[in-house]
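Example for tutorial group B:
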């Protein structure tokens, strides 16, 4: 076992065979896994177990995964990975809009899920090891404490939203394609269908008070990608 100490995972999955397989594999690679088979039991387990990552099925007895995702997100910014057999783009969008940080489609090979969890964990770097902040007019992005302030107002962002904003702001004035963003944030290539980047951009614009119809802070460069405008944050 490569005991890397990647922390606790709450696995909410009603397929006991699949849940057991995933739990065993992750435990062999440095994770401590708590298994829950019902949606209506998961929130209490989350509060008691205090996981570093939640892996969450959408179709659950007792309570839907989407509802549970929203409940967890209202309490914590713990990364949430949706595990689903649904391939409909709408389900992916609903999951991301409910606060999930990533999603994977069943059937998934455990090593692939492991790689996705490790990618999320790498973004959960201890504060003492992270330095740096970016400031553009009234916008302050502080990576050391993972805070974003706009005109001194604290803006609540999920882990993935913060990472996307940091990525865009670090490349201020440069257009990043969806492929650039997905590769650098999740290690996967854009397949022409993946809508997660668009969903996160939309959520960021809303939280940062950027006009969704005519955005000027995070601009769409048609046919190319997205551009963080460093001059749009003067208040």
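The residue assignment follows.
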């Amino acid at each position: 076992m490569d005991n890397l100490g990647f922390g606790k995972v709450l696995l909410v999955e009603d397929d006991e065979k699949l849940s057991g397989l995933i739990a065993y594999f992750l435990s062999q690679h440095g994770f401590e896994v708590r298994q829950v088979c019902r949606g209506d039991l998961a929130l209490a387990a989350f509060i008691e177990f205090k996981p570093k990552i939640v892996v969450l099925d959408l179709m659950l007895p007792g309570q839907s995964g989407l509802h549970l995702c929203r409940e967890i997100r209202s309490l914590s910014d713990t990364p949430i990975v949706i595990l689903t057999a649904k391939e409909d783009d709408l389900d992916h969008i609903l999951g991301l809009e409910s606060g999930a940080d990533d999603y994977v489609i069943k059937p998934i090979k455990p090593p692939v899920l492991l790689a996705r969890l490790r990618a999320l964990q790498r973004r959960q770097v201890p504060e003492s090891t992270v330095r740096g902040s970016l400031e553009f007019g009234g916008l302050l992005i502080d990576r050391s404490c993972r805070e974003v302030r706009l005109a001194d107002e604290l803006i609540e962002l999920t882990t993935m939203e913060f990472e996307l904003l940091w990525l865009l702001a670090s490349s201020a004035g440069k257009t990043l394609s969806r492929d650039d963003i997905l590769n650098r944030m999740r290690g996967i290539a854009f397949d022409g269908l993946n809508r997660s980047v668009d969903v996160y951009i939309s959520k960021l614009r809303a939280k940062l008070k950027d006009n969704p119809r005519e955005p000027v802070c995070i601009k769409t460069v048609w046919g190319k990608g997205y551009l963080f405008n460093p001059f749009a944050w003067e208040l």
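The longest helix spans residues 110-122. Compare this with the pattern of hydrophobic and polar residues in the output above.
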